User: Fold these one by one.
Assistant:
Number 1:
Amino acid sequence: MKIFSISVILAPTQGSSTTLASASDLSSFSFYQKGSVGEFMSFFSKTVAERTPAGQRQSVQENDYTAHVYNRGGPEQLAGVIITDGEYPVRPVFSLLTKLLDDFANKVPQSSFSNPSAISFPEINTYITKYQDPSQADTIMRVQQELDETKIVLHKTIESVLQRGEKLDNLVDRSNQLSAQSKMFYKTAKKQNSCCVIM
């Protein structure tokens, strides 16, 4: 999974778009390809930003690249574009685009949009570095990953208890914390389930 390019683009409803801030990670390309690939990514970003109606999100695929666009519209007329490979999940990209546009709108005054060369937004470099891992951009994905890791730890813990030679039946029989009724329930449930074991 890879993010190649992130751009904040001024996308007016009429006329051509202007790149206000951008960052790219072209380390996977050879020295001779980087210039051409960078130009293509810039062109691709501006084109999809212009072709995405205000207030909409879309993903546009071109060969091995996918451009994810969020044209926020409104009075600022900002659009965010992230170009990734085909494996990068969609939901984290759109979470990241929302964060990026909010951050840009808060830190860069709209009056400076007319002079893109004077805009300073170094945070965009942090975005492209930090969010190469999609779980950093999406809280739901991060929580799911943590749950999966917890499940693995729980499985390991249960396996390690059983490997010590103790059987659950013996533990139940010796337990002072279980009532006679609970012990009976456990044994009855085990007998009923044992009839269904396939040998």
Number 2:
Amino acid sequence: MAMYSLSCSCYSLIIEKLIKRFGAKRVYIGGLLFYCSGMTMMALTKHRIGVIIFSWTAGVMYSTLFTMPYLLIAHYHSQGTFEVNADGNAKLGTEVRGLGTDVAIVSSMVFLAQFILSICMGSIVSWSGTTTAVVSVASFLSFCGALSATQVMYLDL
């Protein structure tokens, strides 16, 4: 847990610099893929040292998940843009949207996803017969998240 927390703190300090250098899309997807590869390696090695080393990737993922969506929401609100037209160009919003409402929706979705996963993990571990399933599912779902992140509107952030 100490390595996880340390990596989360360190990555949180540099994430804005990474966004300026590489762009939000690459940082978002890269953070999720970094976690995916770390969890895959942890599942394959099944060793104490591997757990310590690869737990660093969990901190990167946590920082990514609890930073990037909120940065994107803030950027959408500062631009007044919440969608793109068929050509892929930003379309100015005409409706009144509250920043607090959007932040609450994103926060609710994150915690709802964690809740649903928590309900399912006991059955998955029981079905597979090993706790390595937890790490494998985390890796798979992180990969799915990275694929989904390719469809997010980044508005040149």
Number 3:
Amino acid sequence: MAETNPQIVSASREIAAPAATIFELIADPAQQPRWDGNDNLVAAEAGQRVHGIGDVFTMTLTVGAVRENHVVEFEEGRRIAWRPSEVGKEPPGHLWRWELTPLDDGRTAVTHTYDWTALTDEKRLVRARATTADKLLGSIDRLAALAEG
């Protein structure tokens, strides 16, 4: 079913790789700049692999800023979601989510969602509106190239 709230953007596609392989690329922040379709991420220190709700990992953005990412949803191999924030501050209300549904041993349905329904920081609204389904699909496509390669 198509999402009708313009503040919740998502994209989906099938990837010809096992869910565990795909999930490792998502749950290890050091891998995220390799597949980021928004061209927003530069680097993350190794050793920050996410293992559960409450974990926090840091990323360096292309503009040089560092963001803390607070994991708020987690199911190993299936679902991960985080809320980014400036270091030491409360998350302003947007969320990135990945959902993986194994179809068989070598195929996985992948859905990537950006939800900014709770975003309160006015200076982030322009960027939030610019995050389109095409950009999310770009991340999924890059992720597929890595996982299928």
